[in-house]
Design brief:
Blueprint: E1 14-17, E2 20-23, H1 30-43, H2 53-70, E3 74-81, H3 84-91, H4 93-110, E4 116-121, E5 124-130, H5 134-150, E6 153-155, E7 158-160, E8 164-170, H6 178-194, E9 200-203
Parallel strand pairs: 8-9
Antiparallel strand pairs: 1-2, 3-5, 3-8, 4-5, 6-7
Length: about 200
């Protein structure tokens, strides 16, 4: 640009953008590792290492804002492990933790990088599907359901059969806040459970 000179940035340089100051860090240095650990502590669920509920809420608010501004589609899946209490009762809580970690890893592998996979609470997970209509969310939900059903989980020489129920919902202009989308997905999840579990249902 006329009147401006190119400047070569160095590790440790500070860059002001509006009211925010960024610091250039070495990705292999201890300071980067420290900030990365702080992020993980704040954003990730300690057991499953997918995003936690607070991080999910942030991601959902961001995508809702994008949807309002640009008209992009947005869908949400709520996923519940069927009869998870029986897994804990029959095999113990350590085995239950193993199941949670395995299902979380499977869900994270299924989605695109830009999707947000999170532990919603207890034995429930959520996936934010950016730029996805309800039809696409149902297809993705069925893929997830089938993958979980086929997943081989073994503990102490015993195979643990695991299935999930999935509720899908799409953001609508009539909705006011993220809780509205979550409520519709939650209602759809209960439909899937009431219909016999190990299935996908949608809500509007």
């Amino acid at each position: 640009m006329p009147g401006h000179e190119d400047v070569l940035l160095r590790i440790g340089d500070l860059i002001a953008v509006g009211g925010v100051i960024f610091k250039l860090l070495d990705a292999t240095g201890p300071e980067f590792d420290y900030h990365d650990q702080v992020f993980r502590t704040m954003a990730l669920d300690g057991l499953t290492q997918v995003r936690n509920r607070r991080s999910l809420q942030d991601a959902l608010e961001t995508e809702i804002a994008r949807s309002r501004r640009h008209g992009h589609a947005l869908s949400l899946l709520l996923i519940d492990i069927d009869h998870f209490k029986e897994v804990n009762d029959q095999h113990g809580h350590l085995c239950g933790d193993l199941v949670l970690r395995r299902i979380a890893a499977l869900l994270a592998r299924q989605g695109r990088r830009e999707n947000c996979t999170a532990r919603f609470g207890g034995d429930e997970f959520a996936i934010v599907l950016a730029e996805t209509r309800l039809g696409g969310a149902l297809v993705f939900g069925e893929r997830v359901r089938g993958a979980v059903e086929c997943e081989e989980i073994e503990a102490g020489g015993v195979r643990i059969e695991v299935t999930v129920s999935v509720g899908a919902a799409e953001w609508a202009l009539t909705m006011q806040q993220s809780e509205d989308l979550i409520a519709v997905a939650d209602a759809a999840l209960y439909q899937a459970k009431d219909a016999g579990r190990n299935r996908v249902a949608s809500g509007r």
